[in-house]
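Write out the 3D structure for:
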Amino acid sequence: MKNNSHFKSTLLAMALASSTLSLQAFAAEDLSEANQSAYSTSFKALDVDNNTTLTKTEANKEKLFAKHFKAADIDNDGTLDEQEYTNYKSKSEQKEVKRVVKDSVITSKVKGSLLKDEGLKSLNVSVKTNQGVVLLSGFVETEDQIRQAGLIASEIEGVKSVENSLLIKKE
């Protein structure tokens, strides 16, 4: 019975890892023409004076450029042309996708490691990751299980820190 449970746990961990790798491959693809068209549409919507450039005031209507206008203005002319806008926005979005994929991989690895640990009932443990910070929540039976889950999570590659919010289940 215990071997069957371990087999199911291992199978679940493998499925999670496989789906995460598929997502990573999808995220690594180049931007499609549809995305380029969407950037062009967004750029034109911001260009209220229709002069094919965005002033800082025009660009500030978009949160990304309100904070990063100067970094996007490659030629330092105080405006963004459509190419500068598109390049900066696509790089920013790609960076965010990579971060989300990394966090998903970390979550899968932590959950898989928790599933493999015989001393934990890991299906009662929720794992979430944001920018390398792992949040463990849920219920376990002992203080040792809380410590063990935190230790397991902290040993996974890419984990910056662990917020262990596990609680002991009251009977």
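Residues 23-31 have pLDDT under 50 and may be disordered.
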